[in-house]
Design brief:
Layout (H helix, E strand, L loop, with lengths): L17 E5 L4 E6 L10 H5 L7 H9 L6 E8 L4 H11 L4 E10 L1 H6 L4 E4 L4 E4 L10 H25 L5 H9 L2 E3 L1 H7 L4 E2 L12 H15 L1 H5 L3 H16 L3 H14 L3 H15 L4 E2 L8 E2 L2
Helix pairs in contact: 2-3, 8-10, 10-11
């Protein structure tokens, strides 16, 4: 089984922001599954979404985590306020932090993602970067001032991307932000926004695919010793056994057929033995039946 990077806690997270600690492993996990927004006071606080994450709340939580703890931050967020994203980024960047993009790390959330020394993209996840935006009103001077302010605010987000170690230059980064760019996991690693893509864990559990069912039928002779029960001569037994065992050692089934064809060309009499073997195989093993409605495979063995 392939070793994989740990990308989730043993317990399912609450729907929005949460922090859990493991005293034995000296680790903590933070889930930011909502927008990045500042705290609202008064009646505004009553209307604020439970999924909103503020820098104030997160900073207080992180302050209670011992310095020697490893912190994993899971992110699925559309982003939000730049000032809150920058504050969270600066709160986390000097700690031993791994960030994992679990869905979207967009806008201000992409800045928070860059706080990790290790930055992991799930295979089905995206980053999104763009220039800062705001609502403005007033006269021409007010709008010119707003435009200048936005350039400065955007440069702060750019500084976070550059600080994390991206390998593209500042001009390219500025162009990507101007074009409001969605970044795939592969590109995130190529450009240096991410350090790796999470590996998909391989399983040894049987799957319900047509190919697996065929493999089980073909290799059943090895489990039950059918070749030896049929009573072939020793040399023929070894040849047939090798042919069928090759199914397990070749990823491409065409290689198996090519080896079988070569063997038959060299010894035409072998076909008779194979027919006898297949007849015995069919007689000994149950026939495949159509798949059930709730199964994905073409067919299953009984």
């Amino acid at each position: 089984m392939k070793k994989t990077t740990k990308t989730a806690t043993a317990k399912a997270p609450v729907p929005y922001f949460s922090l859990s600690r493991n005293e034995e492993e000296k680790s903590a996990e933070i889930f930011i599954f909502g927008d990045i927004a500042s705290e609202r006071g008064g009646l505004g606080g009553l209307l604020q979404s439970k999924s909103d994450q503020s820098s104030y709340d997160l900073a207080n939580q992180v302050a209670n985590i011992p310095e020697d703890y490893v912190i994993t931050v899971h992110i699925n967020s559309n982003g939000g306020e730049v000032k809150e994203g920058l504050a969270i980024y600066n709160t986390l960047k000097n700690r031993n932090v791994t960030t994992i993009c679990e869905g979207f790390a967009a806008s201000a959330a992409s800045v928070i993602f860059c706080a990790g020394k290790t930055r992991i993209m799930q295979p089905a996840s995206l980053l999104f970067i763009h220039q800062a935006s705001m609502i403005a009103q007033g006269n021409a001077d007010d709008f010119r001032k707003a435009s200048e302010d936005l350039d400065i605010i955007t440069s702060a987000a750019m500084a976070a991307y550059l600080e994390c170690g991206i390998v593209i230059d500042e001009d390219m980064l500025k162009k990507m932000m101007q074009e409001e760019t969605w970044i795939t996991p592969t590109d995130a690693v190529t450009f240096g926004f991410a350090t790796e893509i999470a590996e998909v864990e391989e399983t040894t559990e049987p799957t319900n695919s047509a190919m697996d069912s065929i493999m089980k039928a073909v290799t059943a002779q090895k489990k039950h010793g059918m070749v030896f029960e049929i009573g072939f001569e020793d040399g023929v037994k070894e040849t047939i056994t090798q042919l069928f065992e090759s199914v397990n050692s070749y990823a491409n089934i065409l290689d198996v057929f090519n080896k079988a064809a070569t063997a038959l060309n060299e010894d035409p009499a072998l076909m008779g033995y194979i027919k006898e073997f297949v007849t015995s195989l069919i007689a000994t093993n149950p026939a495949p039946v159509p798949a059930k409605v709730d199964n994905k495979g073409f067919f299953n063995l009984k």
